[in-house]
Amino acid sequence: MANIVRIFDTTLRDGEQSPGCSMNLAEKLEVAKQLERLGVDIMEAGFAASSPGDFASVKSIAKAIKNASVTSLARALKGDIDAAAEALKEAKYPRIHTFIATSDIHMTYKLKKSPEQVLEAAAEMVRYAKKFCDDIEFSAEDASRSNPAFLYQIFEAVIQAGATTINVPDTVGYASPEEMTKLILGIRENVPSIDKAIISVHCHNDLGLAVANSLAAAKAGAGQLECTINGIGERAGNAALEELVMNLSIRKDYYNLGCNINTKELYKTSKLLSSITGVRVQPNKAIVGENAFAHESGIHQHGMLANKSTYEIMTPESIGLTENKLVLGKHSGRHAFEDRLKEMGYELEDDALQIAFEQFKALADKKKTVTDKDLEALIHHKTLKVPEFYKLERFVINSGNTITTTSSVRLVAKTGHVLEEVVSSYDGPIDASYKAIDKLVGKRFTLEDFVINSVTGGTDAQGEVNVKIKNNEGVYNGYGVSMDIVEASILAYISAINNMLYDQENKREA
Ligand code: KIV
Ligand code: ZN
Fold first, then answer.
1. CATH homologous superfamily for 3-277?
2. C-alpha 141 to ligand 1 mean position (Å)
């Protein structure tokens, strides 16, 4: 039987650290639940000591997740380990992940510590963490640029102190696959107690080799791979989970390794993350890109028609990509709607389902065909538990290319108050509407990013808008969908404001 490689997902820690990928508590919880459905073995929920917000998310995720280990990162410092242990208290399978840098460059310039001091701190902190839980991971930051002899020494010391996983990060994405192989084999041969721990790798993608390096390590005996959904992460990102997993699955003949991931959840997980963060994957991205299963050239299409195996090494269904079916019409009832959502893998609570159903009816009234993609866009964010501090009641635009645009926006606040503002702008309907909303909520934001996409083809397609707004307190994502792109833009802006207010409420409570 093939050996099982553990999949350690760090989307919510290393991934969330990357620019444009920050998430609020509700969004992180939603991603964590999806990672659980996906079948990851361990999820890194955050870095508890880094901020009250991170502490709160690690704590909530630890409480909510029952079918995976939940871990928090911690520097090799008592305070960090205390915070991680406290945040993980309610986890069913807690793990503390502590790290210290081991390369000469990092020890000299960053830590200003000698190798002896680093070794002592690592072993002492693993021993300290062990008081709180059994499952301890130790990472030697910048391992691939560290002196191998020193790595062997420090890994032996931390295993003796109680580490159950030793992680070998290629922190700056510098290694080659052959070097990773050599490093893992070297650790297996030169760390006397290595049988008492699992070897893990954590590869960054600065030279585009994160997945290749991780797979080389797995082939050489690493039993845990650290990765993120869509490969998000610091700088060029981390190894992409979906690519690692499909390599193990499709090339089982070569790797002879298995993992616990349900590959049918891969597409949905990728979609969820990109729609929450607004960071889309490139169309030609392996496995989950829009074109990953598209066969355009005549020769390829001919081959595919003759026999799919000519050009297809994996099926779209294997990653959970459903056919973009014509689903329901305007006469479809709530049951049919709910059943279709279930088939697509979505279960909404009653209130959210009712709202989604009403929106579906309104859409089916206007649009000839409603497809799975339309439904996906409609239910997007309906599973998130972000309260609607403000809701759009209506907007009226007077616009043209020879007149100044005027936008009148009416919002209903959570308190029930109705607020209305009219603003004129030379810069068109979206600018005028956003300025009106700023006035209504009494705040000013910078629009950091604005992306509009059509959900399907056709002039009657829905438009989906992702925005990022910024003020001195942070950057917030928002999403809106409508057949009217101005409405989608307004909804996205309001959703970003609701996310901001939700975040502030959580910070006050933390
Ligand atoms: O890239 C890295 O070295 C890390 C460690 C903290 C595991 O993220
Ligand atoms: Zn990293």
1. Aldolase class I (3.20.20.70)
2. 6
